[in-house]
Amino acid sequence: MSGALVLLRHGESTTNQAGTFTGLVDVPLTSRGEEQARQAGRLLAAHHVIPDLILTSTLQRAVHTADLVSDVLGRDIPTTAVWEFNERNYGALTGMTKAAARAALGEVEYMRLRRSRDGRPAPMPLRQWLTLRRSPALRGLGRAAVRRTEALSDVITRIRPVLHDRLLPAVAAGRMVLVVAHGNSLRALCACIDDLSDAELAELNLPTGQPLLYRPNGAGSLQPRGGKYLDPASHHAAALVAAEGGT
What we know:
Elements: E1 4-9, H1 14-18, H2 31-46, E2 53-56, H3 60-73, E3 79-81, H4 98-105, H5 107-115, H6 126-133, H7 152-172, E4 176-181, H8 183-194, H9 198-203, E5 212-216, E6 222-229, H10 234-243
Parallel strand pairs: 1-4, 2-3, 2-4
Antiparallel strand pairs: 1-5, 5-6
Function: Catalyzes the interconversion of 2-phosphoglycerate and 3-phosphoglycerate.
Catalytic activity: (2R)-2-phosphoglycerate = (2R)-3-phosphoglycerate
Site (Transition state stabilizer): 182
C-alpha cells in the first residue's frame, strides 16, 4: 500500500468554544471536540486510510484527539508526541478573548498578528511564561519549544525539519502517517508542503476535526496541492473559521 500523510486539527477545545487565544496553554477538549475526534476516526475508516503511525503535539487536546481516533479505529497505533507540532505561542495575547483583542488592536493589526507570516505579538509577561514552562505538557522542553512569543514564521522554522527528516521519508517508505496538531502548527506544515505564498497562507483556514489527506507524487513531494479533505463539507467548516478571523 502506498504511503500517505493525513493532517488533523484537534477537536474543539474549551478555549476554542470560548473564543480565547490559547497558544501553549494546555486545555481539554469539549464534549463536541471529543465527538469531532471520533467522527474523524470514522472518516478515516470509511476511506480506508488507516494510520500505522501517529505524531501529535505534547498538548492534551491533540493527544486526546489522537487517542479517540485510535479507539474508533480499534487499533493500538504507535503514537509519539513531538514538541515541534505544538501550537504557536501567542505571547501577550494568550488568555485574551479574540473580541477584546480585535477591539484593542484594531482590525488591521489584529489580522496582521493572527494571519500574516511575520506578525509577532508582544511577549507574554515573564511570570506567565515561567508558569507556562512548568506545565506538565511543556516541562523539561528547551527554550526553543517555549518562547515568550512567536510569529507563524517561527513555527514554520521549527516544523520544516520534521517534515523533511521524519514525515516525507516515512511516507516514501509506504507508511500511513497521521499528524494531530493545531491550527497554526498545521498551517505552518501546509506552508512547507505547498510552498504557500504570503497571501495563500493568510487565507488558509483549517477546521477542527477534519482530516486532510496528501499522497506522495513519486518525486519526493506530496499532492494534491492544498491536500484533499475526506469530508467535502470541510470547506464550509473552513469558511466558518475564516469568519471568526482565522485560527
